[in-house]
Design brief:
The chain is α/β, with parallel strands linked by helices. The protein is built from 7 helices and 10 strands. The chain has helices at 41-48, 74-78, 96-106, 111-124, 140-152, 170-185, 197-200, and strands spanning 2-10, 16-25, 30-34, 56-61, 64-65, 81-84, 158-162, 189-193, 206-211, 214-218. The strands form 2 sheets. A 6-stranded mixed beta sheet has the order 6-7-8-3-9-10, with helices on both faces. Helix 6 links the parallel strand 7 and strand 8. Helix 3 (96-106) crosses helix 4 and helix 3 (96-106) runs parallel beside helix 5. The longest helix has 16 residues, at 170-185. It is globular, with a radius of gyration of 17 Å. It starts with a strand and ends with a strand. It binds adenosine-5'-triphosphate and magnesium ion. Adenosine-5'-triphosphate binds at residues 11, 14, 17, 35, 37-43. Residues 11, 14, 17, 35, 37-43 line the site of adenosine-5'-triphosphate.
């Protein structure tokens, strides 16, 4: 589904943050992306979300070389990738329901076509009782789940989660992990960037380990 070959990335004239990354992310796979703070986990997720272009190397996504894709087509491709940012990025003046529905609303979809889906998804992440409240009233774990629902509403083929358990206690981290595992069982590929060793030790999953610009993969 995704193929990187000798990919390098530097910001501006700075040092190369990522060097010679060669790997695949297969359809329906589940993996952790780990490595010390500053190793480039968020940077790699931004490459996967097509919000950064590599400074060298080749990236193929869904069968296409990303440098061949005309700019106006990028949003279409990006729609196949769901992302949960490290800082949630929920809009504080919209309710939980409206935040989750937003990606569909901005595309001009009629509410009647998605209302049931949004409500069901919110129930699935355990926010059925919180649909009409504003994000400032939500707890850290609830915000995290609202961000998960928003990333999933468009049924992406791959979900990228940046430190999804950083702001929650261990039982909530376990619940979130179970959500990601269930999503993966339903056929979505999942990449979780994390430092959290206890989280990673709970599943026997592929680990992509970044350090000093290089990537090691433990299957
Ligand atoms: N927009 C930017 N411009 C310049 N340098 C950047 C930019 N974003 C990140 N960096 C640098 O790139 C390196 C990798 O950062 P990145 O955020 O990808 O690391 P990370 O592994 O996600 O770290 P953390 O675990 O703390 O979230 C760091 O040295 C950082 O300072
Ligand atoms: Mg990061």
């Amino acid at each position: 589904m995704i193929h990187f070959e000798n990919v390098g990335l530097r910001y501006g004239m700075g040092p190369e943050i990522l060097r010679d990354l060669t790997f695949d992310i297969p359809k329906k796979s589940f993996q952790f992306l780990t490595g010390p703070s500053g190793a480039g986990k968020t940077t790699l997720l931004r490459l996967l979300f097509l919000s950064l272009q590599p400074t060298r190397g080749l990236i193929r996504m869904f069968g296409r070389d990303i440098t061949d894709i005309p700019r106006p087509e990028l949003p279409l491709l990006r729609r196949r990738v769901g992302i949960i940012f490290q800082e949630f990025r929920l809009l504080d003046h919209l309710t939980t329901y409206e935040n989750v529905a937003l990606p569909l609303r901005v595309r001009g979809k009629d509410e009647s076509s998605y209302k049931t889906d949004v409500l069901e998804l919110l129930k699935w992440v355990g926010l059925g009782e919180r649909i009409n409240v504003l994000p400032p009233v939500l707890s850290g774990g609830e915000k995290q789940r609202a961000a998960i629902a928003r990333a999933l509403i468009d049924r992406p083929e791959i979900l990228l989660a940046d430190e999804p358990t950083a702001n929650v206690d261990p039982p909530m981290a376990r619940r979130l992990l179970n959500l990601f595992l269930e999503l993966n069982r339903l056929g979505t590929a999942v990449v979780i960037a994390t430092h959290d060793l206890t989280l990673m030790d709970q599943v026997d999953a592929r680990r992509m380990i970044l350090s000093e610009g290089h990537l090691d993969i433990h299957d």
